[in-house]
Amino acid sequence: MYLIALCDDEKTELEKIEHLLRSYWGRGGENSFQIERFESAEELLLMVTENEYMPDLIFMDIYMKGKLGTEAARELREMGNSCRIIFLTASIEHALEAFQVDAVQYLVKPVSKKKLFPILDRVIGELDRERRRYLLLRIENSIQRIALSDIVYCEARKKQQSICLANGRQILLRMTMTKLYEMLSVYPEFVKVGIAYIVNLDHIESLNAQMLQMDNGEKIYLPRGSYRPLREQYFEYYCVWEENLDECVGNKYYQ
User: Fold this and answer.
1) Nearest to 220 by CA among 205, 235, 238, 239
2) Could you give the CA distance from residue 224 to residue 204 in angstroms, rounded to a whole number?
3) At what angle do helices 41-51 and 69-78 cross, to 10 degrees?
4) Residue 146 and residue 125: Cα distance in Å, rounded?
5) Which pLDDT belongs to residue 60?
6) Residues 17-30, buried b or exposed e (16+ Cβ, 10 A)?
7) What is the pLDDT of residues 133-169, one digit of tens each?
8) DSSP alpha helix (H) spans, the chain
9) In 3D, which of 12, 33, 36 has the Cα closest to residue 24?
10) pTM value?
11) Max CA pair span of the chain
12) Which residue, 8, 91, 104, 163, has fewest beta-carbon neighbours within 10 Å?
């Protein structure tokens, strides 16, 4: 599901863009979406900071009472928020400023299907590709994008989860192992090992009945009963079995 924020101080404009978005998704497709309306930039920023709201895409007017849309976008970027922003406005006066905050598009009102739909095709396509290979996580009061390929393993530490990255960095998250595994289990390289670990199969250097040797030099000792199912998952991910042969053709080492 994609979270989409609409931010405009005119209700009629909010209704127009929501109608266009529902028409776009009404054409069919695999993705679902959820729209939230905000009638000021301050209202949107409050939702982000206090409720950990992380929209995938924001449609934002520039000329609003109180804080300008470009000012709100700059604050979002300073928080580490990398969501897509499309500015909708009646003037091109702030076009340069809009792109300085990494907006993906600047559309002059009125917005039509002809203008908007090709942009949505591009943006949603990019989001689809990125979502497959990145996690968006709230870390130290900012939203950060973590490449899946950088995650070596995750370890449960009471009410926190520790994510070990290939560069040696450790990230602590306040979430349950169940929630973290729910996020990672859609990717075939991530498997659960016992109740305390989620391991990236791409980073296993070798494995045996006692432990995993990870390619960052760390060792993970296997709990009782976890070796056989892990080995089967490992083979299924990496190897091509040849009929009547007792060996695996792959690029990893096992015992």
Assistant:
1) 205
2) 19
3) 20
4) 19
5) 94
6) beebbeebbeeeee
7) 788 888 877 778 888 989 999 999 988 999 999 889 9
8) 11-25, 41-51, 69-78, 95-100, 113-133, 177-184, 227-238
9) 33
10) 0.57
11) 74
12) 91
